[in-house]
């Protein structure tokens, strides 16, 4: 206790420090002003550095952009050097040497410019991104809790922060603009008339390019729409998915044709414009005295300028994306919250007593404004007393705590502390006086010491240790190898629930608050930990105002005042003893139920807790509907609403009505082995003729670029011929260019069409195989997060499509590239093998240059994400635990930690910018050096008589065009590793055998089904949670034609009985029999046809009412059967009154129908196959009173002469059942008729009914 007083004294000094309210506020504001001044000067310094970097970067970009147009001048000079000195080879070498030297100077200048552009822009980008990230997080932390409820999610925040925050604008725009202007300026200077003629072809180029982009985008959208239809696996039967898969291949083929036509058109227009330029250039040489070099200079300059426009579009779209991302972030940064964590204005008191009052409070959560939580709620808690709030889940207990913490403001009414409205206090000051311990403690990804120190700024190790001792945490902390320095893992995953809770309590103790809020603070602990932690809590509750939310009986019993809350109103209030005086009161019923629980067998709390949670977080029965749609056509299993929702109040103070959150991102698919290409090829076997034809066409296509290189060299030679030959040959080669253009226009679409057909058929086959496997998987497979409908949908759509690249697109590109390389090398070696060898040795330089530039243009977003992972984790923790951060006023602490984690990545980013700059500079230098060396070597060979001027250019253009073509086309090919991973992911599904397979035809089919059901000594755990025992030893006999109701607390295992009867799972031990035969020996499809399931939330398919009902009989129901089933389900009348009657489309998930109408269609679907057994899983609980009455009448009608199993229904249904079985702790605790069970004194069923009645009258 000495340590406790030490903490208290610290706390008192802290209190006393605010001896003068006025003084404190003045001091605070002075500090704030000084801080702001210091911050501003630092910001100005940073801004001026960044402005300087951007200016230098832009100058570099312009220099880099102009280097290509300048290169065209040198190319013109080089051509003239060769052409004009064909007779004087010594002069040729001399002139070529001079031009080659100019290439070297240009290489150096371009290298420096590229280095400045990339380094300056990447460094400033990194600096600015880091600053914006910090500012974004700081602003997020000041937002009120409502902002996180309604406007943003943790995932979204992290995506924005870890991505390229404001997609770094890398001055590509400036570079391309300089290239464009430079190219056209030089072209006009060198030959304005020829330039004008060439410009006339540009609109055609732009038009064909734009048309291609639009068509491809449109087809991609159509394809994606078809894929997403097909991918909605949970929504479709096998028949429907097959149809959708067939349809989805058509857009894939069309997309291929359009892409082929687009590329063909672009290349055809380019080649034709070359033809025009060669013919008109010849005229200019004859009539205007142009030289051959000037003509080629103009042609290449116009081409360079035009291409820069084409390259600009990705930069423009990236910039637009960056702007929209920035807009969203700055929108958040500029947002002023209603409850501002950084607001330093407001009252502070010299001392705080801790009187709490909620006066006539009206409140609804901002995320659910239509749902009124409090409607004139009032509660007064005097200073130093302990108040306990109990009541059903969702009644508003935790909302009281949120309002006291000022996470939200009431819509009307007041929340007062010491008679002062909470809104008048300085937010940070008042939150420092309140300590919060929640049911699920939130720990940050740091050490135990750091987590506890969140309770108090600058806490010493001694204070932290004494707080841990008070919370009974030192014993387990000392056992850990690193003690207080042990890392707790993400969300505290390295610690048990009890250990986490004790650290959270230590954190609250360290804060030494005047008001303590305990929101089910010991619910996660085992009996022993709970006892010790409860003692610690009792100790720290002394002389503090304490508000406890629905705790164990021990805590509630000791409270000065207990308030029972029901539907936002206080229905009973008083001490434990006072409330027990009314035996029929709501509180008495709760107490009685807890005492019954205590007496039951194996009753350690931890065990019970895990069982309760076990069913609550039951694998989502939405996944069951996938099976049902195939073999039985029924609807979705029940939602996890507590039984107590119908019975008024919660059946036990510690039963929670919320499933734990599922992780946001799913783990990757099983580590499947790599799929050999031969296996994919075998799936493409029927398309072998198509692939063979495609290969031939791709090979011919491969010849286009080398031939284009040859044509350019021929055109260059032509310009230096005598006039009569020039006139004749310029026309001939112009026609050759046009012929090449025409060939391209025809060949490209044929190539892409043939490979698209093969690729699309492969996708279709993979999707069909995959989907057939999916619908036949056992339900437990779907309980794994990586097999959720979303994950499977993505595998069916994107993974299957990615696989196609391995066989379709990649094969086409590979064949074409091989053909291009072989033909180019043959042409070069025929022309001049010596020069061919020299250039081939240098070609890798061009390749390296291209790779470096493309790598840069793609950006380093992946690296940025990786580097900022740790910093993002801090942000992730803070945003995901915003209530804890707000409660402990830990915003500044989070920011300090975030800045610290950003230091390393920022340095790495700056270093990366420098390296990229050097790489990019070298790549530019290599490119121009390549030209210099090639031409100089050519001149030497011409001088030695080994080759001619024409052959030099033939070798040069054939090989460089081939190199450019191969490097460019490889960028169109998807990442091979990605495709291989996708193939492994898809085949891991195809190769897996289902453990409970509905397509398995083996098994017995009984001749005449009576409907006798028996569960004998069944024990069961969900495969996804093997440590949670749902059934220990359950036995139950249900006779033919009987109606049996299963009741019990939420999570007791009622719906699990239905899942086992349908054989969604097999029991771990024991047996389930139908008419004396074990259900595992029966044919699964036949078994499910004997059962009709109606669930709380019916799943209807996006089809007509007729089709939805017919699904119940595998789509084979006659019109008469459909109408008969509808009449029996009370649905015929409303269906007939609709305009389209049975042909009315129900919309996605049945949205066009009301809840009651959907439920009746689901009942008709269950009845159309005339099942002998009817399973009703909370079938009317989600309906309003009128709909419930109609649906209940339909169910009563349907239950006649059928064996019916009803899960926890409204009282009316339970009362009329032939047998009621109460499921508790994995066994049947009580069974009998309503009257018999009511007569058992203090029985579980009797208590549930009494609770229901008291809640109704409240």
UniProtKB/TrEMBL annotation:
Ranges of compositional bias, category Basic and acidic residues: 34-45, 598-609
Record-level GO BP terms: oligopeptide export from mitochondrion
Ranges that cross the membrane: 51-75, 103-123, 180-206, 257-280, 292-310, 688-711, 732-750, 818-847, 909-933
Protein name: Uncharacterized protein
Membrane topology term: Multi-pass membrane protein
Composition-biased stretches (Polar residues): 1-31
GO CC annotations on file: mitochondrial inner membrane; plasma membrane
Organism in which the protein naturally occurs: Turnera subulata
Keyword terms: ATP-binding, Glycoprotein, Membrane, Nucleotide-binding, Repeat, Transmembrane, Transmembrane helix, Transport
Family: Belongs to the ABC transporter superfamily. ABCB family. Multidrug resistance exporter (TC 3.A.1.201) subfamily.
Gene Ontology MF: a single term: auxin influx transmembrane transporter activity
Taxonomic lineage of the native organism: Eukaryota, Viridiplantae, Streptophyta, Embryophyta, Tracheophyta
UniProt domain ABC transmembrane type-1: residue ranges: 55-321, 692-978
Any Pfam family: ABC_membrane
Domain ABC transporter: 356-592, 1013-1250
Record's subcellular location: Cell membrane
